Amino acid sequence: MGSLPPAEDISLSSYQWPPKSPNPNPDLSPIDESTLLDLFKSQQNHLNFFFHNLDLSQTLKFTVTLLNAPGTIFFSGVGKSGFVARKISQTLVSLGIRSAFLSPLDALHGDIGILNSGDVLVLFSKSGNTEELLRLVPCARAKGAYLIAVTSVEANVLAGVCDMNVHLPLERELCPFDLAPVTSTAIQMVFGDTVAIALMGARNLTKEEYATNHPAGRIGKSLIFKVKDVMKKQSELPVCKEGDLIMDQLVELTSKGCGCLLVIDEEYHLIGTFTDGDLRRTLKASGEGIFKLTVGQMCNRKPRTIDPEAMAVDAMKKMEAPPSPVQFLPVINLQNMLIGIVTLHGLVSSGL
Question: What is the pTM of this model?
Fold first, then answer.
């Protein structure tokens, strides 16, 4: 076994990824930009075939059926079509529409119990001859569900046994053997998600309603979180009185993680703010005189403030507004009483 080189001889530059093979596989053909461009153009042409030949009256009937469904809209499929069906169902759920994915295999082993009269079951299958879906049809029909086949092959079995069929025109798969389902699944995804957005518009879903379905995402947080949801409360505030000496308040200034002092009167009305930047400027200008200066003498008596009911995203905009950005905003009520502070760090940490 060979020994490792001394530590001082090891250099990251000596390692490469992917590693250079001394014997490249002679069976591999090179891939260049031209090859990739040709493939993307071919896929674009196949998708254009779908767009140009899609039966819009059929698609409209499908969309209206989903819109008026009294129950839950279930999607099912096998293999790649199953992944697409699950994704489209998740899109509908994110829009506030009752939907779920129903595995055809699990459905035949008990999960079909979730189906009820008034539900819609959408079956995705390129060929329309998928055995698992065909076995599911009579069971779903016995439960009273309305069945819709979404297929790409003309005159298929599944279309004949469902209540409705939507034909997704497929010129061919991008695969050179016309076998790997890469164009058909792209068409299914485009079709399903476009219908989902049509349903979104028909239901007059507002931006705020959409946000309530995405509370953990940045969009949801920007439309849901208010200042009062992300601010530090009174017990966490670095407060002082205007008559306090600056040097006596250094611990308060630095220990609360806000980068400032909030100057208040006896009734907790906000008088002004004194920042760590103010401290540096005061020390530079006054030298040893700083030991005699009070916070009230050097504080900013016209700081930017914000209402607790304001949106948190608006607080961030206010912090970044001209003439110069700030790192915090005191939160005051209508009586100018200090009730909290919101910091840029806190807003960023909350995901805004």
Answer: 0.65
Is 2 a residue whose pLDDT tops 70? no
R_g of the chain computed on alpha carbons: 32
103-129 residue pLDDT tens? 999 998 999 999 999 999 999 999 999
* One-letter identity of residue 37: L
- Answer yes or no: do 296 and 155 share one domain: no
Give one DSSP letter per residue of 212-254, joined into a string: HT-TTSHHHHHHH-BHHHHSB-GGG--EEETTSBGGGGHHHHH
> What DSSP line would sit under 153-217, residue for residue?
STT-HHHHHSSEEEE------SSTTS-SSSHHHHHHHHHHHHHHHHHHHHTT--HHHHHHT-TTS
Continuous segment of H or E residues that includes residue 33 = helix 33-53
DSSP 290: G
pLDDT digits (tens, 9 = 90+) for 201-238: 999 988 777 766 655 555 656 667 889 998 999 889 99
What is the pLDDT at residue 128? 97
The verdict on 188 and 308 lying in the same domain is no
Provide the residue range defining the domain that includes 62: 36-205
Which range among 56-65, 96-105, 287-296, 341-350 shows the weakest confidence by mean pLDDT? Answer: 341-350
Concatenating the DSSP letter of every residue in 159-170 gives: HHHSSEEEE---
Q: Across the chain, what does the average pLDDT equal?
A: 89
d(Cα 178, Cα 227) in Å, to the nearest integer? 56
Residues in the chain: 352
- In CATH, what number is assigned to the domain containing residue 81? 3.40.50.10490
Rounded Cα–Cα distance for residues 352 and 345 (Å) = 10
Cβ burial 285-299 (10 Å sphere, 16+ → b, else e)? eeeeebeeebbbebb
By CB atoms closer than 10 A (0-12, 13-18, 19+), residue 183 is buried
pLDDT band for position 257 (cuts 50, 70, 90):
confident
